[in-house]
Write a structure and sequence with these properties.
Layout (H helix, E strand, L loop, with lengths): L5 E2 L3 E9 L3 E8 L9 E7 L4
Antiparallel strand pairs: 1-2, 2-3, 3-4
Length: 50
């Protein structure tokens, strides 16, 4: 996923934290919380099973 990608109209990807056997983990901003600066969170993008 590219930085600045927005998921579910709420989570804005900042950077890739790591990747492994189950998927990729990203640092993101939670746009759904009405404070500034936006709180950071972690998003896990799981790989699909073949």
């Amino acid at each position: 996923m590219n930085p600045d990608t927005i998921l579910r109209d709420r989570y804005k990807i900042i950077s890739l934290l790591g990747q492994g056997g189950f998927g990729e983990t990203y640092l993101a901003s939670d746009l759904g919380i009405p404070v500034n600066p936006k709180p950071k969170c972690v998003v896990k993008h799981l790989k699909t099973q073949n």
